[in-house]
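Re: Re: token formats

Sure, here are both.
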Amino acid sequence: MTDPGTLSPAELVDRVSLQDRGWAAAVCAPGSVGTLVSELQDEFEGAVDDGVKTEVVSGRGGAFRLVAKLLSMPSDSVALVRDIDDLKEEDWRHLDSSRNALMSVRRVVLVLAEQTVQSMAGLAPNLWSWIGPRVWGLDEHAGELSVDARIASLRSAFDLTDDQVVAMAEAGTLRPDPALAEWLVLLGRGDLVGR
């Protein structure tokens, strides 16, 4: 089970989509921001009602441009904000003083590094008080079951070893069961399914 503070991109999209004012912050490793922004964009476009535009917004131009861009977006769009890890102190203060105006923007996900969360909390306390309960670690592998864990659960459930399952499949004596077929596939022996 994943840490409740860490979500997969799909889980984050679900949580943001279910809220009327779905502002959130997704915390990830600095090197994975671009990949995760793309994955979030794909997830939003697949999960949110048809016709909703997802737009990636950069904070590179500073807080004044960022606020203007967010306020000009259509009300049913989703903004994925990246490139805010290098904002200066005055940028954070401007974002903080713009909080009430920004509340009109329905769905925004700030994708940032962990140290940026600390900057937001210290330099933009009003913004932080609003977003703080919806700050989650973002892990593209969160919620995935590992192959080893699944095979271990199959061994326990059937009281068999991997070798026994493969031998029965090769002999044609393995009973037809989707879980046993899955086991063979996980072992890299999908060629034995249905023998």
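Second one below.
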Amino acid sequence: MNKTVAICLLIVSVGTVILVSAAAPRWLDDHNEFLKGFVNHELLAILGVILAITLASASQIHLKFNDLEEKRGHDFLQKSRKELEVSAYSLIISFLVAVALVIVKPLCAEHNFGIAFINGMAVWILLFNLLILFDITAGIFSIGPIYSEKIKDLKD
């Protein structure tokens, strides 16, 4: 998935959450039994698993980048390393925002718009996390093998 497409998808989905929360809050508020049962500790459990697995994978990727750059003898993965760092910190921040949403949700119990907006943003955060997973996975598979200079000389 193209980065521009992902950003557009996130922007459109936030706009959709706001519009649906304002125009038809019953679709997203606690009348929706799934969202009522999902935007609580269940959301945090799913995001926690995604966070733990992805951070472990990101650390391994980071270490592999170090190995590849040492073999090559110069830094050539700065852009990939920065994207990985941004992705990892984005996952952490989105988890913290989800914790805040779960804590604030009971305070909005009397406001259908508030509950609908919180539930919608929780689904948005899940989408955001899935897009980050997709981005990291695509990045991993885009890295090709790195050959030493001696192997290159033999092929030439």
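The chain has six helices and no strands. Residues 41-72 form the longest helix (32 residues).
- S.
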